Amino acid sequence: SFLPLAGGTMTGDTLHADSVSSYYGAGNDLRIYHTGSTSYIQDVGTGSLIIDSSDLIMRVNGSENAIIANSNGAVDVYYNNVKKFETSFQGVTVTGNLSTTGSVVIPDAGRLYLGTNDDAQVYHDGANFYANNSTGQLNIDQAAVTESIVFRTSDANALDVTALTINRSGDLTTGRDVTIAGDLTVNGTTT
Predict the structure, then answer these.
(1) Number of helices (H), then strands (E), in the chain
(2) Which of 83, 108, 156, 182 is within CB 3.0–4.6 Å of 126 for a Cys-Cys bond?
(3) Mean pLDDT over residues 77-92, rounded?
């Protein structure tokens, strides 16, 4: 028997050969088909393709999670069935390294926290820049062989004054006068 044009209940499978499409909508707006090697769901008409579910799970290879969108909750993105990216009410959590091809922008009052217990912070409050370390010593290492550490300031133009240079031997050179509030101990020759 045939399914009536007015509609009805199908109790068996419908089989479509390769590259035979199922169309939906008066203008054939939604198309579903398989080419023999790849399956397609195409919105070829007007409007958007909306997938609506209480929870949405996208898998590959039959059982590997790729994306899970939880109702009123997180969206999780997986690599090889291991969660790597998760949204939350606080923002996002990335498990593993984060590589970007552009800039990372943190607005004023936003902070970059480093360490398990937020041991170091880097931020700009809209007026000043801060680098705070609350655990251990603060190390500034120059690992480029034969190069110096240079501190510059701005006088008439941006970064036009070299205020302090520490060369590869540890010798200091200042751009102007030096004021010492405490004692000065010199080991070696003074000139």
Answers:
(1) 0, 14
(2) 108
(3) 96
